[in-house]
């Protein structure tokens, strides 16, 4: 087996979901996808409360952040085709059969293994929201989104982070990205944006990039264009047939000096407390 492939097979995906109902949905979708052996679901786990320096989190190499957002990019129910979630029978039928077992599985039993549940976000987007209400909500959301991103920056072994929203607002997108890049933790740990030319081909070729004007609203950096170019936007109502979406990625190279120092400091403290608390 190829070395990278074998390493990937040994990896575990930890999926944090704070909401109990959504964690159940996640569990069902993981099972239907046949990924139970790969994914450990941390149900009712607030990501902000996990300690990046404790196992298993101190071994995490990559994070995918898809936080709660305004949902302003989501196309209304009456505007799109119905999306049907996978059914177990269909998935089973599409799996390659072993040569010995020629027996065919039923292609469709008609009974979905799960209903397609309503998954309301806690903060649904309201088209008729007043500007003041919207602004207050965006401030709260973007504060939370930035907090999440800065927390992700703290994982000592992490080298890649993706950040995505289904929001059309720069406040939740480019502004969060620029504030994150300007943060002391990003600078200390060497986090930078994954530039357009470094991205995989599809992401590199996608024409709709981040909003440069919006980037300039919060950054005076000369190379702010690179940040805008490194962001990907999808718009609703365009020929691409997408919803409103935003995604970008952060990377860093090399050893994490700060994390190593922190670990050493913690070990020293643990050593001290062993002797002093009498336990
Ligand atoms: C935009 S949804 C994305 C969910 C999933 N990626 C999907 O595409 O269906 C954001 C999810 O993050 C969860 N969430 C929000 N804050 C969280 C936190 N602090 N820790 C863990 N999960 C959180 C919400 O409950 C919600 O299910």
Automatic annotation (TrEMBL):
Entry binding sites for S-adenosyl-L-methionine: 17, 46, 66
Key word S-adenosyl-L-methionine present: yes
InterPro entries: MeTrfase_RsmB-F_NOP2_dom, RCMT, SAM-dependent_MTases_sf
S-adenosyl-L-methionine found in the keyword field: yes
Positions of the UniProt region annotated as Disordered: 95-126
Residues covered by the SAM-dependent MTase RsmB/NOP-type domain: 1-253
Active-site positions on this chain: 166 (nucleophile)
Domain of life: Eukaryota
Keyword terms of this UniProt record: Methyltransferase, RNA-binding, S-adenosyl-L-methionine, Transferase
UniProt family annotation: Belongs to the class I-like SAM-binding methyltransferase superfamily. RsmB/NOP family.
Full protein name: SAM-dependent MTase RsmB/NOP-type domain-containing protein
Organism in which the protein naturally occurs: Lepraria finkii
Source taxonomy: Eukaryota, Fungi, Dikarya, Ascomycota, Pezizomycotina
